[in-house]
């Protein structure tokens, strides 16, 4: 079964829809410039709506230790997503210091971009393969931009990975078929306005992803 992460959850309706639809992961964005950003207290309150349920993923961009500590003190994160320019050494340091699994986001535009994964593989638990930000984008992710899904087809990715970038309920099935992904991540494609999740589209997205046979 395809694993689904709904990223950029900011309100109870979005959290509840993702959990009820059976998403495996929900992402909280701890990056203040993002329209999807939440404070640690907001994420803690959302997370507390349900015991168990989706893995809580904290998304950070080149975080300091203090930023990570502030979140981990109140939000039970099961995965730290690093979506900035974190080096291999910094990923290893964060994973060792905080004892939480790490998912490194890597921008993909060409086959050679996949070569970066080998160096990170020993120090991270998962990869999130995302489109590179389009020219002029102000955010490193969440830009509704897709990369060529065929780039990962038949490739050995050295850790479990999620496909991200521009996915929607209408395209996710074809994206899984073309890419061979066993997991998918979405933000913009399940929003009715930038930063505002649409519970109906969350349900549609999870349903569409579920109809695909796992290949990874
Ligand atoms: O979503 C954001 O606002 C964001 C801000 C800063 C860094 C990363 C961000 N999102 C990363 C994600 O994991 C998104 O879900 C992923 O890029 C896919 O986004 P989309 O193309 O909008 O579905």
From TrEMBL:
Signal peptide: none annotated. Keywords: Amino-acid biosynthesis, Aromatic amino acid biosynthesis, Isomerase, Tryptophan biosynthesis. One of its GO terms (molecular function) is phosphoribosylanthranilate isomerase activity. It catalyses: N-(5-phospho-beta-D-ribosyl)anthranilate = 1-(2-carboxyphenylamino)-1-deoxy-D-ribulose 5-phosphate. Its EC number is 5.3.1.24. Pathway: Amino-acid biosynthesis; L-tryptophan biosynthesis; L-tryptophan from chorismate: step 3/5. InterPro entries: Aldolase_TIM, PRAI_dom, RibuloseP-bd_barrel, TrpF_fam. It comes from the Bacteria. This is N-(5'-phosphoribosyl)anthranilate isomerase. It comes from Belnapia rosea. The gene is trpF.
